[in-house]
Request: fold
Amino acid sequence: MDCLRQTVSSDILKDIFNLPLSLQNKKVEVIILPVDDNIADTPKRKRKLGFIDAPPLPDSFFDPLPEEELQLWGL
Reply:
């Protein structure tokens, strides 16, 4: 596993991290280790459902259901 370990002035870290007062204006050791692969950074391609070849739904599909239908569903 690759890692980076370096001693640096805490002044160069002040814009990256909120350092506690006890670490400010001192030399600090920075250790960088990987925690996960960059799998989330790869774009996911959109997949089309292969079993449906139908026209788009009409706008009326999204209209509220009639009260009678809601009662049949117990709502």
About this structure: The chain has a mean pLDDT of 84.
